[in-house]
């Protein structure tokens, strides 16, 4: 196969570097290659060409599964795919200088035979739970702990099943690690609305205890792949980063997702990453934890209609935060209640934040395209008649996961749930706002509780 040759030195891409002591590394997954002349060989090569342009090169690489197309009953054919992937497609990588660590995946460890091949070919550390030699393991790199979990071990039932007692014990045993990452193949939370236990994410009976372990273990992020997308979301302060763009040709959904790799830097101040497409263009980025607004940045918004404090696109590197306080309604609470909306007269508001339904569920509605149905994000329910104090962060650089909330007495952010692949990164904010009622006046979706107060801060990252 003839590949386009790009001089990685002349066309170098500056890597994000740690600010002081830290780690600089690469994330990518789901190339599904290993077959000479197949479509994914070319697409995987296009991503690797970008990786080779990074300067400096990463200190290590995390690959959360599905390196090869696999899914064959023939062990010799499976070994041949691995040989081609390691010795030809990844021949450019000096694995002694830049180690690469892998997780199991549904294309690579789908039965006992393929698990045996995976163990033998990759020779990963033997420090995992009983029966999972080379399938689950951990790596300690100075102040960084990386735990690689197997989300489809045959001994537990296969795809979507994951051992969690060993994970908890490993995190507790390395409680002195400043940074902790957990890496697995399947997401815990749905990505882009693609949901289905045991196939698109881990089994639902595992999800809550698994995430509780991450939260209690002060884990920074869970890195996964499997769903062909790039996606990031937060749940109780822990990130779920899904990177499945290393070469699998078909994307979900078309026109929104793209082939990519993720270059990241980690230091005492937190995590930063940049998502690079096959042209080396930065498509998405993140700084975590997000900076908090300072007291002088807060503006009290008047109730009723007002001129917007800003309009137009919210540029990369910026976010806004709303602090919403008040008391939930006690009667007639099911109709939509407006907290904050942005609109232009004569058109349906492209952004609405309020409460909907008898549980008074915090909801965002974003209408990005005229004539198309809007997208919905759902957050916590508010108790009837009970005071609330909630912060909402709108961070376009995070995509659909960038609509987040936290309670005022809890510093941990969570993404509102949605079923869309886009956030508000393309939204042009209107010049009119309304607080406490909709764009149609005081009778339009009024807030039915009491003592509503809305403050807003603009933050530069």
Walkthrough of the structure:
- By secondary structure, this protein is of the alpha+beta class.
- It has 2 domains: 13-288, Metallo-dependent phosphatases (Purple Acid Phosphatase, chain A, domain 2), CATH 3.60.21.10; 295-460, Jelly Rolls (Sandwich), CATH 2.60.120.
- Helices cover 13% and strands 32% of the residues.
- It contains 5 helices and 29 strands.
- It has helices at residues 39-51, 75-89, 112-122, 165-173, 204-216; strands spanning 13-14, 22-27, 54-55, 60-63, 100-102, 137-141, 144-148, 179-183, 221-224, 230-235, 238-243, 261-267, 270-276, 282-288, 299-301, 304-307, 312-313, 318-327, 337-343, 351-356, 361-366, 375-381, 387-394, 403-407, 414-415, 417-418, 428-429, 432-435, 450-460.
- It has a 7-stranded antiparallel sheet with strand order 16-28-19-20-21-22-26, with no helix packed on it. Strands 5-4-2-12-13-14 form a 6-stranded mixed sheet, covered by helices on one side. A 6-stranded mixed sheet has the order 6-7-8-9-11-10.
- Helix 2 (75-89) packs parallel to helix 3.
- The model has no long low-confidence stretch (mean pLDDT 96).
List the helices and strands and how they pair.
Elements: E1 13-14, E2 22-27, H1 39-51, E3 54-55, E4 60-63, H2 75-89, E5 100-102, H3 112-122, E6 137-141, E7 144-148, H4 165-173, E8 179-183, H5 204-216, E9 221-224, E10 230-235, E11 238-243, E12 261-267, E13 270-276, E14 282-288, E15 299-301, E16 304-307, E17 312-313, E18 318-327, E19 337-343, E20 351-356, E21 361-366, E22 375-381, E23 387-394, E24 403-407, E25 414-415, E26 417-418, E27 428-429, E28 432-435, E29 450-460
Parallel strand pairs: 1-3, 2-4, 4-5, 7-8, 8-9, 9-11
Antiparallel strand pairs: 2-12, 6-7, 10-11, 12-13, 13-14, 15-29, 16-28, 17-27, 18-23, 18-29, 19-20, 19-28, 20-21, 21-22, 22-26, 23-24, 24-25
Helix pairs in contact: 2-3
